[in-house]
Amino acid sequence: MAAAMQPLTNRSKVVSNKKMTLVERTYLPMIMVGLWITLKHFFRIKRPTIQYPEVERPRSDIYRGQHVLKRDDQGRERCTSCGLCAVSCPAEAITMVSAERKKGEEHLYREEKYAAVYEINMLRCIFCGDCEDACPKEAIFLTDRIVQADYLRMPFIFGKDELVEPIEKDKRVDVTKRQTPAVIKFKQQERFAHNR
Amino acid sequence: MLPTLIFLLVLFVVTLSVAAYSTYGERKVAAFIQDRIGPNRAGPFGILQPLADGAKMFMKEDFIPATANRKLFFLGPAIAMTTALLTGVVIPWGGTLEVFGTTINLQGTDPEIGILYVFAILSIGVYGIMLGGWASNNKFALLGAIRAASQMVSYELAMGMSVVALVMLTGTLSLSGIVEYQIATHWGVVQQPLGFLLFLICAFAEANRAPFDMPECETELVGGYHTEYSSMKLGFFLFAEYTNMFMSSAVIATLYFGGYDIPGIHSLGWDPNIVTILGMIAMFAKTFFFIFFFMWVRWSVPRFRFDQLMNLGWKTLIPLAILNILLTGGWLVFKNGF
To answer: What contacts A29, CB < 8 A, 6 or more positions away?
Structure first.
């Protein structure tokens, strides 16, 4: 004989299929209740709405937004077009074409190889920051800037003109919030292949 | 003659602008009820939104399906819009104004059968939806149109019967006569509470508004009777719905809330023109309240299933309307004797 099933918790409720009373069947009292609830909401102050272009929601200091390709102290591009960022990218959003530095270009590029074309497809990018982790040259960083909306898809493929920071010292993009001492120390650990 | 023409022109413009701003009002009311802000980009507080919507409607491609019946396809929205605008003519928006010796009656025309006229126009309004759905040559549009037609025909019955009781009480079919009766005694809602409730419910169904918005149903019918419509023809259908809402609100205010009556204003002994203007403001305030009420209900109450809708109409509202007539008749006999 099967024993009566024991309830595991006391939270279960028995569903009743009882007939509605006449008052309930007119629906009018419950409609009044519903109208009263919506009226209360009608006069509530709309606090959660943020008027976006004028007001922005506070973002974290280490927000992962639009990328920047850093220059070094002398204004030379740090990127050596090694391709580790493209390899590490889970969305396959990064492509690049490498080129060799010519004589007389030493003030533009830090090492012998540089990226002649460097493109990030901002529609594919998931802003995970893996490119930043992978970069051995401290060249690419995510910043707290937001990628602007557009009407077409083509403008979302950002080339070097949008990614590389300006050469003027006062227009450089500050990434110290993301490049903390702990991050720099991590990047110098020899046991990671790409740091050697 | 000329004052009447000018009045009708003003009424036309007012009706159109009220309908246009009802769309804005609906979006704002919906937003506020859902704790949102609603349209606020086009002009201050988004008050230019109806203009932007209208411009958008005109810019859209005006598409006519290849299998559609072209003439009827055009006729549908035209009838819907025209009939929606026609009701306003008989509604008394106020008393009479004396300007430079001429008397302006704030009512387009006052036929002795004003209520019958309103019901006749309502019935023709169904044709717009029916023709639109039929001419589209699309099964979903046709189903939407059938729903609209059967719903409006059934609820017209209960609506008419709820008014019969009021007419028995006032002894006139003229809308201004009913308002004058209410000024002399009490508002209709006090004398006919059950009739008012029935009329209100039926007005929701006649205007195809939630919770009776069966003809439009994205889940079952793709869109509704206007599935195949685009551009300003669709705009006309939507516009007609808001115009109908405005007119229904005005009729409710006239029949059951004293129309342009402000209780006790005649005992103050003010200038008749001022009394008339205040009365007109009161009439519009009452109307706008009911427009708000239409929207308020739409965003509070879930919709009926179609069979529930027909059950409610035929098995509940019509018997109640008959009961209301009997009660009113009994009371009249009790009061006046045989």
So the answer is: A23
Q: Give me the pLDDT at residue A126, please.
A: 93
Contact B299 A34 (CB under 8 A): no
Instruction: List Cβ<8 Å contacts ≥24 apart for B20-27.
Output: B20/B50, B20/B54, B20/B239, B20/B242, B21/B50, B22/B242, B22/B245, B22/B246, B22/B291, B23/B49, B23/B50, B23/B53, B23/B238, B23/B242, B24/B49, B24/B50, B25/B291, B25/B292, B25/B295, B26/B242, B26/B295, B26/B298
Structure tokens at B329: 């008749």
Q: From the candidates A26, A28, A36, A41, which should be mutated to test the interface with B, based on the most B CB atoms within 10 A?
A: A41
What is the three-class DSSP state of A151?
Answer: coil
Q: How far is CA B137 from CA A137, B152, B175, B222, B225, in A?
A: 66, 22, 40, 14, 11
pLDDT (tens digit per residue) in B212-253: 877 677 667 777 788 888 888 888 888 888 998 899 899 999
Local structure of A35: helix, strand or coil: helix
Record the pTM.
0.80
Question: What is d(CA B214, CA B222) in angstroms, rounded to the nearest whole number?
Answer: 12
Cβ count near B174 (within 10 Å): 21
Model pLDDT, residue A36: 93
Residues of A in contact with B33 (CB under 8 A): 38, 41-42
Taking a C-beta distance cutoff of 8 angstroms, is the pair B114, B173 a contact? yes
Spell out which residues of chain A touch residue B299, defining contact as CB-CB under 8 Å.
38
Counting as low any pLDDT under 70, the low residues of chain B are 215, 218-219, 338
Residues in chain A within 8 Å Cβ distance of B34: 41
Point out the residues of chain A with pLDDT beneath 50.
1
ipTM of the complex: 0.80
Mutation target among A22, A26, A46 for the B interface, most CBs of B within 10 A:
A46
| Residues A86-125: tens digit of each pLDDT | 999 999 999 999 999 988 888 889 888 999 999 999 999 9
CA B84 to chain centre: 8
Nearest in space to A67 (alpha carbons), one of A15, A1, A134: A134
> What are A39-48's pLDDT values in tens digits?
998 888 877 8
Using the Cβ of B311 and the Cβ atoms of chain A, whether some distance falls under 8 Å is answered with: no
Predicted local distance difference test score (pLDDT) of residue B221: 73
With tokens 């090694």, the residue in question is: A82
**Cβ neighbours of B88 (radius 10 Å):** 22
CB spacing of A31 vs B35 below 8 angstroms: no
